[in-house]
Amino acid sequence: MVLQDLGRRINSAVTDLTRSPTLTEKAFDGMIKEICNALMEADVNIRLVTSLRKTIKSSVKLDQLPPHANKKRIIQKAVFDALVDIVNPHQTAYQPKKGKSNVIMFVGLQGAGKTTTCTKLARWYQARGFKTCLVCADTFRAGAFDQLKQNAIKAKIPYYGSLTQTDPVVVARDGVAKFKKERFEIIIVDTSGRHHQEDALFAEMVEIQGAVQPHQTVMVLDASIGQAAEAQSRAFKETADFGAIIITKTDGAAAGGGAISAVAATHTPIVFIGTGEHLLDLERFNPQSFVSKLLGMGDMQGLMELVQSQNLDQKPTMKNISAGKFTVRDMRDQIQNVTKMGPLSKMAGMIPGMGNMMQGMDDEDASLKIKRMIYICDSMTAKELDSDGKIFSEQPTRMVRIARGSGTSVREVEEFLSQQQTMAGVAKSAKGMQANAQKAQGQM
Ligand code: GDP
């Protein structure tokens, strides 16, 4: 099952339950069962699914909830937390530092997407002001150096490799030494692909590791390999002890649950995910954001990071968010930013509620939908734009006026405002969490 379908199924299991007038223990168990089935069909390891079942069951005691408790929110939160727990290794990955040479070595099976991802990652750091380069230590596969070279030239990233030297350890050592001398800050080393159980190649990987002393070894895992991911990553972990995982091809048609289970098996953080063949198709991974997006709840953090990396003007929104606010104007500005950033169908997933709304749409439809939202905003007064959005539910005639003025329907206006309200809720709870964390720190 594709990750998107998994998200949709989990989401509808929760929504069906919380919408039903009678929320019984039996219906609650039914929801957990449906979530577990969906996860197993997506290749998530059965042990993890069993533990998720127990966690959700033990964190919500339906019969002990006070009569006026918001059951929907409590159940949603329990499911959300349990899913985050699956992809959260409770370990942090190495953070490259500016002003020093950070060596990152890639390992993984042949065809996993190492060479492609090396360049994506190099570009990612380059866009964030790091002096970045690539070393091709794959002397095993004919054409590997050529592929890396083409990618590197396209991304304007300096590279090192050899057409004559057949010893990958020598190439890796020389390349890294050269770039260190030239004070490069991110030196990414691509190694040759391995088929499982190839002892000689595993030995070579360890030798390269010894020669270049990487600050971080990254295992590249193909999302489509299903249950096999766990055994493979264990074998790599035993030999190369990688400290981070990148999952590629999450845009593909296959289940991603196997790769996700590998994270739990190796207690290693996923640092990025590959979302397509293009150079820009790499997203930073964060457990909360990932689950949030999976469930169509948006990815506020990812959106902010992306906006920041694109140098778009978003200071007023950032200021509002840190104050726990998110006005209608903030919503409009973010939508406008999204249109500048890339394929809409992908970006839309980052705005709470929008991913679900746009599911199944191609870029053209998504673009039309976004344009209509901008028309809606353009028909609002400054007071309405700067409001928290509540004036619309207090005076619904405003929505009728806006729909008429923008050539849209009242339903569309309502839909837009309900997303803004979701986002405002996220901003408010983020602020609350921040305050609690500060309080807790103060008590320590
Ligand atoms: P390597 O043998 O591990 O170096 O793998 P390559 O980098 O040569 O990639 C193998 C294939 O996977 C290529 O056709 C890539 O374009 C493709 N690929 C890599 N990452 C992704 C991804 O995130 N999404 C998709 N759809 N394809 C990818």
Automatic annotation (TrEMBL):
Gene3D superfamilies: P-loop containing nucleotide triphosphate hydrolases (3.40.50.300), Signal recognition particle SRP54, nucleotide-binding domain (1.20.120.140), Signal recognition particle, SRP54 subunit, M-domain (1.10.260.30). GO terms for molecular function: 7S RNA binding; endoplasmic reticulum signal peptide binding; GTP binding; GTPase activity. It comes from the Eukaryota. Pfam families: SRP54 (PF00448), SRP54_N (PF02881), SRP_SPB (PF02978). Keywords: Cytoplasm, Endoplasmic reticulum, GTP-binding, Hydrolase, Nucleotide-binding, Ribonucleoprotein, RNA-binding, Signal recognition particle. Residues 269-282 form the SRP54-type proteins GTP-binding domain. Fungal signal recognition particle consists of a 7S RNA molecule (scR1) and at least six protein subunits: srp72, srp68, srp54, sec65, srp21 and srp14. Belongs to the GTP-binding SRP family. SRP54 subfamily. Signal-recognition-particle (SRP) assembly has a crucial role in targeting secretory proteins to the rough endoplasmic reticulum (ER) membrane. SRP is required for the cotranslational protein translocation for ER import and preferentially recognizes strongly hydrophobic signal sequences. It is involved in targeting the nascent chain-ribosome (RNC) complex to the ER and is proposed to participate in the arrest of nascent chain elongation during membrane targeting. SRP54 binds to the signal sequence of presecretory protein when they emerge from the ribosomes. This is Signal recognition particle 54 kDa protein.
